[in-house]
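User: Teach me something about this protein's shape.
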Amino acid sequence: MLALPGLAAAGTGTDCFDKNVPLTVEEQRLTATLPSGGPAVGPELIRLAGFDALTGDFTRKLCGSTTPRRAERTVTEAGRQLWRTAVDRAQGRRPDLGTLDRYDDRPLYWARLRMSAALRQWTPRFSLPADVRERLLTAFDQGSRGLDDVRFPLGKLTRRVLVSGFDPFQLDGAGVRISNPAGASALQLDGKMLQTPEGPALVHTVTFPVVWSYFDKGIVESAFGSALRDRARRPDVIMTVSQGRPGQFDIERWAGNWRGGSPDNNRAASTGPVPPAAGWPQPDVQFIETTLPYARMQAAPPGAYPVKFNQQFCVWPDSSHPGAGTPMCRTDSPRPGEIAAAGGGGTYLSNESMFRSNRVRLGLGLPDLPGGHLHTPVLGQPTSPTALTDPDFESRRRAIADQVVTLATAAG
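Assistant: First, the predicted structure itself:
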């Protein structure tokens, strides 16, 4: 049995939950503390950001739902409200919400998990088949990631830019306090109007989970493909963003058709070619080259970190036995018949977000539309092993996120 902080309390009107229902590995981390002790990290970040009222209101409304239709409305609205609240707080429109640095992406992540855990363990007053509950979980998740919020304008007066970020990851042990600057950047960019070299551009952003199974179900294709096939509102630029290596930004030249088996946020691993997503046109390719204006991005006003153009990619030594042997890495161009062992961004979900978003771009017949991937510098953690945040940590995250805005402006 797992009792989650703040999820339910008997006699408060929020006691309609079965604590014996298993949670995901991610949701189980809601009880995780730092190795030195102290309060559970996720709920404490929720509290410090002023998101307690929002998550509490969700559990009360769940317990008050008397019909499937009302529950669906509650869940859908809650996901969208969480996303909009996180964006508004990040961009300074909700100074009333908590004391935590507004650039902090972690409250959105942990509030989402608290609310999805509640929905998973909810015992409604009516019959709720497993497949219906799963649809409710999906609807909530999509709303809370901005996936329901991408609405570009018609016409040619305003350009359109679609950017994705990621959740925090590597959250076990002391990593439970980790922040992801790509997610923080997405919150800073969503809904902003940028003055790009090509004219004013509206940016919409989404965030992706660090979970292989979500990618297998086509979350990337759904986000980017749905926008790209809308001819009247099609983005002019697409860019995936994730955390990369220390001390620099990398604009990746190549995405590769291979996942390397690193465990995700649910401690699941996957190795092999990137699976196709059902229902989307996807060419059978090993590598996809960026079409982002990388030279213009490198020439953008300088920020705290250098911006590199990473041309490395890796292939398997024997194309008839992918996965065997030591990958061979180069910086020229892949040759016909070579099998991808890694893109410039590696073999994890960063590379896969670039590969999937641009594979569907090519499948929809848009070879020249600018698309690619930006790796941010590694943020690191607060200096003290007992601290959830500190001024240097916050300053680094702010510098990275602000430079992502600059680079998105140059790309647009």
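Now, about its shape. The mean pLDDT is 95. Residues 7 and 118 are 6 Å apart (CA to CA). If you'd like, I can walk through any region in more detail.
User: That's plenty for now, thanks!
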